[in-house]
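Hey, weird one. I pasted the ABC transporter permease subunit sequence into the form twice and got a warning about non-standard characters only the second time. First submission, copied straight from the form history:
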Amino acid sequence: MKTEMASQMNTQIKTKKEFHKLKDYIGSYLFVLPALSFLFIFSIAPILYLIWLSFHDYSLPNPAEFTGLKNFSQMLQDKLFIKSLGNTIVYTAGSMFLGLSGAIAVAVLLNRKLRGLRFFKVFYFLPTITSEVITAMIFLWVFDNNLGILNYLLKLAGVEAPPAWLLQPTTAMIILILIGAWRGTAYNIPIFLAALQAVPQSLYEAARIDGANSWKQFIHITLPSITHILVYTMVMSVIGSFQVVAVVDILTNGGPMDSTMVVIKHIWQQSFEFNYVGYGAALSLVLFPFLLAVTWLQLKLSSGKD
C-alpha cells in the first residue's frame, strides 16, 4: 500500500515538474515571439518572395508569369551587369584599401593620447552620421564642372579650362572611391582605436628594449594584434561597398559611359525604372552568394594566417 502511494506521489511530482517545464518553455517562446515574427515578416518572407520572383517574368501591373531559369540565362548575356560588377569591385577595392589604411593611421595617432582627443572623437565620426545624400551633395558642390567650388578656384588661379571631374570616367570613379574611403575611415576609426587600446603595452616596452623602432613595432606587434578586427572591418567594408547607390545616383547616375554603374544601381534600374521586377530579383539573388563567397574567402585567408 505504501509502495503504491509512494509511486503515485512520484508520478504526480514528475507530472508537475514536466508541466512547469513545459510552462517555462511556452513562456520563453512567447517572449521571443514578437522578435521572431518581426524577423520572419521583414527578413525571411521578403527573401522567399525574392526567390519566387526570380523565376518569373513580372512587370507591374501585369501578373507574374513563370519562366524558369530565363532570368538567370539572360543575366549571363547582360554586358552592363558584368560591367557594373567590375565597377563595384574596383570601387570596393579602392575605398576599402584607402578607408582602412586611413582609419588605422588616424587610430594610431589618437592612441598616442594627443591633446584635444575628445574634440577629435566627435569630429572624425561626423562623416558616418551624415546622410549619404548630404555627403553626395557636398562633393557635388565641390566637383561640379560648372558650379563646383574646385573649378571656381582653379579659374581664379588662371586655369582656363578646368577638368570636368564628374564627366570623365577615370576621375568620376576616383571621386566615388574617395567618398567611400572618407566615410569608411570615419566609421572604422573607433573600432581600430578600441583594438589598439587592448594591445598590452608590455609588448611595446619589450620591443623598444630590443631596439625596434616605431615602424617595426607597428608591423610586428600592432598589425598581428588587430588582425581579427582588420578582417571584420574588411568584411563589413565589402558588404557596405556593394550597397552603395545614393552617392552614385546624385553624382554620376552611373555615367559617364556606364563607368560608375554599380551593381545596386543596375538592379534598381532594371526593377523600378525599366519595370523588369523579376529580372531585378534574379540579379539580387545572385549578388548574395557572391558576397557570401567573398566573406568566406576573407575569413579563410585570415584563419590561414593565424
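That's the output from the first submission. The warning seems to come from a hidden character in my clipboard, not from the data itself. The beta strands are 56-57, 65-66.
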